Amino acid sequence: MACGVPVVSRNLDESFILREARSGIVCGSDAEFSQALVELARYADKRAAIGNAGRAYAQTNLDWSVLILAYKAILKG
Q1: pLDDT digits (tens, 9 = 90+) for 47-60
Q2: Displacement of CA 5 from its chain's centroid (Å)
Q3: The whole model's pTM is what?
């Protein structure tokens, strides 16, 4: 996500972050996966939008300046 690259994934437990960040396409089947790859290959604007969403999410939620505060809060109890 932080690289600004759109992600295509199968529906896994970890896929929630792609939905939350709107940084990828989560697929339930092999056919959906293939279709998502074709769609991203065809539409540069969609690739850019999804990639930009991932980058923005990473900067806002996954930057070390944000994570350090969260870790400190956890460690302080």
Answers
A1: 999 999 999 999 99
A2: 9
A3: 0.80
Residue at 51 is within a domain? yes
Find, among 56, 39, 44, 42, the residue nearest to 4 by Cα.
Answer: 56
Query: Residue 31: inside a domain, yes or no?
Result: yes
Which residue blocks in 1-77 are alpha helix, DSSP H? 16-21, 30-42, 44-57, 64-76
Give the separation between CA 48 and CA 67, rounded to whole angstroms.
Answer: 26
Q: Does the residue 1 lie in any domain?
A: no
55 is written with which tokens? 């980058």
Domain count for the chain, please give it.
1
Rounded Cα distance between 69 and 41, Å, is: 38
